[in-house]
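User: Second chain of the day. Same drill as before.
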Amino acid sequence: MADFYQNGIITTLHNLRQRSLEELEGELRSFKKKRPMALVLPSLFSELEGDALPNIVQELSKVDYLDDIVIGLDRASEDQYRQALEFFKPLNQSFKVLWNDGPRLQAIDAKLRAKKLAPKELGKGRNVWFCFGYVLAAERAKAIALHDCDIVTYDRSLLARLLYPVANPNFNYKFCKGFYARVASGKMHGRVTRLLVTPLVRALKKVYGQNDYLDYIDSFRYPLAGEFSFSTDVINDLRIPSDWGLEIGVLSELNRNYANNRICQADIADTYDHKHQSLSPEDTAKGLSKMSIDICKALFRKLATNGVVFNAETFRAIKATYYRIALDFVETYYNDAQMNGLNLDIHAEEAAIELFAENVLNAGHDFLENPMETPFIPSWNRAMSALPDILDELSEAVTADMQEYSDAI
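Assistant: Same format as last time:
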């Protein structure tokens, strides 16, 4: 059971008791009268063949307060898109599958690209951005949740707790970030949050002193969680990274656009596990190595926009400070793991820290050498300004794909 402690400057909504799911869902059914709800699921086709997504679909088929589910499908051929339409049929809600690799959506991407408005990188950020565009085009949902499709411990209570803060018309929140303990199979997971983000934020505070943005990021219990919910009007002016900095980028945008009292975090799961990325120490373009560089650059870019000055000397100081703080955390996590009967490999933890320390410096050098790098996807407001009919075209393309490739839908 969680405590009720409020840390940092962001409201934390705890799981103080095991409230019945039926009671929670009953309230959500009443909320939908004023705030219709939708769910966005960014998915790779390969996830349809895994263990997690079939169970997620089965759990979602029991949910009766959602109006729409929008699925972004990446890396799928025509036959695989047809399979996806069949795969999602058990859903009881109205659903749409965006075939991101199909000719219709590729034509829309080309039109956006001609105006330099298309996402520059393939990946989750691009997938989510197009799904958000479809939600805007549909003009139905007032509250939206997003979660990943690889959660092997998924049950529908996660969605209910995630949506509740923004769906409740008596609450004032525009955005809710999910958090949970990354513990599964007798091990403590979440290496990038535990061993990179938290010690790096603390190191930046030590090097630069008190900083409102760093206090904000440090308030989130799991800043890299892929689960969040928000009011639909948040989408219009949201600029998100297309790389692994997506989660940090979204938090940064909310920090720029809204007061802290419009943002919260909620405890959404007792247990949580999903697929694990390899550390990939030999290749900075893959796995947790690439993720760590992208996340570092996302933090550095945001601090720079707030007037923080970086140079080669400060990055060396940041690396050294980060390394010492991160190593100190290993003992903390080891003791926590031991007290809870969990396994934690000290050697593997310190090897990850050594890689992350090098990547803090690599990210810093890259940041200095490419000061004009703009990995953010333009906001939908900008896209609609340049191409006023783009949302209608997106909606029509998705509908046409589904009608052409599935007679039953």
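Strands lie at 11-13, 37-44, 66-74, 94-99, 143-146, 175-180, 183-184, 187-188, 228-231, 263-269.

User: Great, on to the next one.
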